C-alpha cells in the first residue's frame, strides 16, 4: 500500500482514549504512513510526550462537567454544548485536511473528527450504552449509533469478537448497519517479570474532580500503614515529570510506557479505575487488581460488576474504599 497521511484523534475524557491509540499509531508508523495526531487537554499532552516527533494539533475541548451521580442526565443537559464542540472540532479537522490532505481519519470517540470523501473509522468499545432502560440512556444511545453509521465508514471495536469478550454487552453485538471490525484489546504496555517492590500501585485516571477526590482519599489512608511501600501514579501528563517521597508513598504525575510496564511488574496489586483502557492493560499484563469505578460513570460500574462476577477482580465504590480490605487482597512481598 502506498504511504498514506493518517489523522488519529483520541477523545480527552481521561487518558484512556489516548493510551489505547498508542499501538494503533505505532502500527501505522511501522507501515510507513505519515501520522498526525490531534486532541486536547491531558490527552494531547500525553501524545506530545509519547510521540515528540509527530505533528500534534489541538482540538476544541468538549468541556463536559462531570457529576457525582449518574452521567447521562447531566450529559443530556449539556448536549447543546457538546454539539457546539463537535461542530468546532469538525471545522478544525476540515482546515487541517485543507492543509495536509489526509487519506484516513481514525477517531477515538470524537464525533466531529471525520472528513467527507475519505475513509473514516470510529473507535469505541461502548457501542451499546448501559442504562438504556430509561429515556435518557436510550436517547444518548440513539445519537451514538446514528452518528457512527452516518459519518464513519467503519466501526472499530477494541475487544474480542466472541461474546462476552472483555466489555460484554457494551461491545456486543455490532451495531446494525455499521461495518464493524473487532481489533482485540489494545494496550501500550509490555509484559515483563520483575521483583516485587510495592505492595500496591495506585493508578489514577479519569476526569476531574473525581481524580483529585480519590487521590486525597488514598493519601489519607496510606498513612495508617507505615510499614508498607506504595506507589501513586497521579495520571497528570501535563505536569513536568518528578518523583517525590511522602512517607511510605512514592508519587509521580506520569510514567512513560517502559516505566509504567515495570511498575505493573513490580507491584503485588494494582488499584485502579475500571475504565476500559486500564482493563485492557490489566488483561494484557495479567496483573492482579482491585477496581474502584469513577462515580457517575455507569460504564465503569457495569465493567466492574461484570469482571467481579466473573471472579477476575474485586471492586468497591469510591465512597466505600477501604485500604485495609485491599491489603488483605494483595499478596505479601
Would you mind describing this structure in some detail?
With 333 residues, the chain is α/β, with parallel strands linked by helices. Helix content is 37%, strand content 16%. It folds into 2 domains: 5-182, Glycogen Phosphorylase B (Rossmann fold, 3-Layer(aba) Sandwich), CATH 3.40.50; 200-329, Rossmann fold (3-Layer(aba) Sandwich). It has 10 helices and 13 strands. The strands form 2 sheets. Strands 3-2-1-4-5-6-7 form a 7-stranded parallel β-sheet, with helices on both faces. A 6-stranded mixed β-sheet has the order 10-11-9-8-12-13, covered by helices on one side. Helix 2 (41-50) links the parallel strand 2 and strand 3 (56-58). Helix 1 runs parallel beside helix 2 (41-50) and helix 1 (16-30) packs across helix 8 (276-285). This is Glycosyl transferase. It holds the Pfam family Glyco_tran_28_C. GO terms for molecular function: hexosyltransferase activity. Keywords: Transferase.
From the alpha-carbon coordinates, what is the Rg to the nearest angstrom?
20 Å
Beta content: 15-25%
Looking across the biggest beta sheet, what order are the strands in?
3-2-1-4-5-6-7
CATH topology of the largest domain: Rossmann fold
What count of helical segments does DSSP give? Answer: 10
Name given to the CATH homologous superfamily of the largest domain = Glycogen Phosphorylase B
The global form is globular
Which architecture of the largest domain would the CATH scheme give at its second level? Answer: 3-Layer(aba) Sandwich
Low-confidence stretches: none
Amino acid at each position: 500500500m502506498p504511504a498514506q497521511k493518517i489523522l488519529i484523534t483520541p477523545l480527552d475524557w481521561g487518558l484512556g482514549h489516548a493510551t489505547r491509540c498508542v499501538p494503533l499509531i505505532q502500527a501505522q508508523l511501522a507501515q510507513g504512513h505519515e501520522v498526525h495526531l490531534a486532541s486536547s487537554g491531558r490527552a494531547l499532552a500525553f501524545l506530545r510526550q509519547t510521540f515528540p516527533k509527530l505533528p500534534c494539533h489541538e482540538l476544541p475541548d468538549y468541556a463536559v462537567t462531570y457529576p457525582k451521580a449518574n452521567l447521562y442526565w447531566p450529559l443530556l443537559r449539556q448536549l447543546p454544548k457538546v454539539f457546539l464542540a463537535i461542530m468546532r472540532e469538525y471545522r478544525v479537522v476540515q482546515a487541517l485536511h485543507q492543509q495536509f490532505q489526509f487519506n484516513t481519519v481514525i477517531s477515538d470517540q470524537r464525533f466531529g473528527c471525520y472528513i467527507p470523501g475519505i475513509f473514516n473509522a470510529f473507535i469505541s468499545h461502548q457501542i451499546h450504552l448501559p442504562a438504556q432502560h430509561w429515556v435518557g440512556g436510550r436517547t444518548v444511545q440513539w445519537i451514538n449509533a446514528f452518528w457512527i453509521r452516518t459519518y464513519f465508514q467503519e466501526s472499530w471495536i477494541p475487544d474480542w469478537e466472541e461474546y462476552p469478550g472483555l466489555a460484554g454487552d457494551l461491545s456486543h453485538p455490532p451495531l446494525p448497519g455499521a461495518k464493524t471490525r473487532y481489533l482485540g484489546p489494545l494496550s501500550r504496555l509490555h509484559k515483563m517479570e520483575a521483583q516485587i517492590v510495592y505492595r500496591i500501585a495506585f493508578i489514577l485516571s479519569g476526569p476531574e474532580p473525581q481524580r483529585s477526590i480519590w487521590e486525597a482519599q488514598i493519601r489519607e489512608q496510606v498513612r495508617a500503614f507505615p510499614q508498607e511501600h506504595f506507589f501513586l501514579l497521579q495520571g497528570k501528563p501535563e505536569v513536568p515529570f518528578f518523583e517525590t517521597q511522602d512517607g511510605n508513598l512514592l508519587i509521580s504525575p506520569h510514567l512513560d510506557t517502559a516505566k509504567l510496564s515495570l511498575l505493573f511488574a513490580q507491584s503485588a496489586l494494582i488499584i485502579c479505575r475500571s475504565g476500559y483502557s486500564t482493563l485492557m492493560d490489566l488483561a494484557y499484563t495479567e496483573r492482579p487488581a482491585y477496581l474502584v469505578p469513577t462515580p457517575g460513570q455507569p460504564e465503569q460500574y457495569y465493567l466492574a460488576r461484570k469482571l467481579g462476577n466473573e471472579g477476575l477482580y474485586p471492586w468497591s465504590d469510591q465512597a466505600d474504599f477501604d485500604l485495609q480490605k485491599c491489603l488483605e487482597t494483595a499478596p505479601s512481598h
